[in-house]
Amino acid sequence: MTEKGNVPLAGAFGGGGLFGIGYAMGVIEGLRQQGIDLSTAPMLGTSAGSWAAAATALGVTFSSLKDVKMPRFPNLRAGVLAQSTHQVFGDAMRPNVHVVACAVRGLKRTELDGALIPLATMVAASSAVPGLFAPQSINGRLYIDGGVRSGVSVDLAAPADLLIVIAPLAGAMFGPFNNIVERNTQREINQWQNVHLGKVRLFAPNNTTAKIATLPHHLFDKARGIEAYAHGLIEGTQAI
């Protein structure tokens, strides 16, 4: 810890489907190659970002992750998404991973703690997109995709001297939705900095990367996710 109580490094990773998983993990790997290793840092993941955070903490590579068999969707059968997340993360728990999901009752953002809940369960909850997957039950409560309320939830990130924010749906991404994510992310960054006084390094798709996914359904295309990883890797590597 530093004198003001911040850890040196933390991460906050946002949603964006398979595209978002690829982009985030590419950036994270690019940073690692440049000496910025987030694997033991406090990480907060939302939706796709929860996959990236859990995988990073466990040392699961994108090459391994992309081969996981995902359920066809929409699929509203209870527990189907958790079966896929369990393939990747097993019963592992990690205290440095927190995940944002929304409680079905009241749609309130809830921060789930990887010291108390298996990563596979948390990731399934944060990725349960309404209409595509059934809510995930945790301790008798139902949760859905954390992105319903906020694309990244930067304001909930751990206190740090440097916060790495990855927002796959901000930057040069498509349409009015992008503008909402961009504004909300910047507002949350300002809130976080006002409280914790740390520096923020924001990664969001540049014009070239954004061309990979120009329509909403592109976000769930595996091939585009793989391409996004390659672009994120370049952006992360060139950040230093």
From TrEMBL:
Pfam families, alphabetized: Patatin
GO cellular component: cytoplasm; lipid droplet; membrane
Gene3D superfamilies in the cross-refs: Cytosolic phospholipase A2 catalytic domain
GO molecular function: triacylglycerol lipase activity
PROSITE patterns tied to this protein: PNPLA
Domain PNPLA stretches: 11-158
Single GO biological process annotation from the record: lipid homeostasis
UniProt keyword list: Lipid metabolism, Membrane, Transmembrane, Transmembrane helix
Spans traversing the lipid bilayer: 7-28, 48-65, 115-136, 156-177
Keyword Membrane set for record: yes
Species annotation: freshwater metagenome
Protein name: Unannotated protein
